[in-house]
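Fold this: superoxide dismutase
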Amino acid sequence: MNYKLPELKYDYSALEPHISARIMELHHSKHHQAYVTGANAASEAMAEARETNNFSNLPKLQKDLAFNLGGHVNHSIFWENLSPHSGEPSSELAAALTEYFGSFEMFKNHFVAAALGIQGSGWAYLAWDALGNRLIIGQLYDQQGNLAMGSIPLLMLDMWEHAFYLDYQNVKADYVKAFWNIVNWEDVSRRFGSVSVNSRSLLLG
């Protein structure tokens, strides 16, 4: 088994009242586990295809791996991005948010608009663009679509209905508003700090 469900660093109830224990339990143990299982199944099927030199089903297997591995990666980052103790962005991250978005408040407004503007299922994200050497905000459709290669996710918000419907029903705006109370800015700042200022050279050689 290549992929495993990560353990959370907090109890399922730790994020209440912003996210209920019931949602956290279902989201982590059922939904995330399903992506882990799917990614492993796709990997094993591709290994069998290589051994038998039978690649007739490869297009489907590649899509299955991209979708399920995307779900595994996204959720693994998402859990780390959350904390019952939100804190504040580091001075370096705060300065970068102001530099690239005008102010922290303008960054939040942009991020909220991206989250609420998703049609169907997907994610809002803050990422480091390794080619442009800058922060960007984007919308990720489903688990894997619309994210540029070379973008390094720093902050992710799950906008699939399974992430919020039991608590907020169809009022997505209340869910996004509550999200800001549980953002683990220490984790986001750490991720930002680990991004190399020379990351552009890694892409261009």
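The first strand starts at residue 122 and ends at 129. DSSP finds eight helices and three strands in the chain.
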